[in-house]
Amino acid sequence: MSDKNVLFQVEDEELENAVQEDEGVDSRKYLIFTVDDLKIGIDAEQVVEIMNAYSATYLPMMPSYIQGVFNMRGQIIPIMDIRLRLGKPPAEEGILIVIDYNNNQLGIQVDSVDLMLDIPVESIVPIPSQSAQKLVSGMCTLPDGSGTMLVLDCEQLIAHGCGD
């Protein structure tokens, strides 16, 4: 048992050293959520709220991926099912992430919210130019080694999210 304690102390010291070395590295916090097997990150500064219970009001003549709107403290916010927007089948339940980009708010229904991570800016690479995916601005390997994260482009999501 004492060996485990020593192991954790070494890891803590290594972590402290890594943090000290990374102080000069420009990084941003990303909230990472999942849609099927995709890990998608959104700049944490754009996240207003995460909700697991909400009630949507259906709106006719909207794209299929717009579930409707909901009232959040007096403000009417559209809800987008990100699964449908990405061409995946709908899920019965999800978690709602309310984002704000340039004073435009949008609720995004996702499968689950994983974690918040600091991602070095230089580790994010642009997606291939021939890609038809307009909602993703970049991608990177996650520092914890758990896979690849796609970076959600909130400007494009809001600009083209409601069928504009």
What key attributes describe this structure?
globular; alpha+beta; 3 helices; 164 residues; 10 strands; five-stranded mixed β-sheet
What does this molecule look like?
The protein has helices spanning 2-22, 82-85, 154-161; strands spanning 27-35, 38-43, 47-51, 66-72, 75-81, 95-101, 104-110, 112-120, 136-141, 148-152. It is α+β, with helices and mostly antiparallel strands. The strands form two sheets. Strands 8-1-2-10-9 form a five-stranded mixed β-sheet. A five-stranded mixed β-sheet has the order 3-6-7-5-4. Strand 1 and strand 2 form a beta hairpin. The longest helix is centred in the N-terminal third of the chain and has 21 residues, at 2-22. Mean pLDDT is 81; it is low at 1-22.
Brief account:
With 164 residues, the chain is an alpha+beta fold. 20% of the residues lie in helices and 41% in strands. Residues 1-22 have low confidence and may be disordered.
Quaternary status: single chain
SS-based class: alpha+beta
Low-confidence blocks of residues: 1-22
Biggest β-sheet: strands ordered side by side in the sheet: 8-1-2-10-9
Strand content: 35-45%
Distance from first to last alpha carbon: 61 Å
Largest sheet: 5 strands, mixed
State the total count of DSSP E strands: 10
Element order: H for helix, E for strand: HEEEEEHEEEEEH
Rounded Rg = 18 Å
Helix count equals: 3
Helix content: 10-25%
Mean pLDDT level: 81
Shape: globular
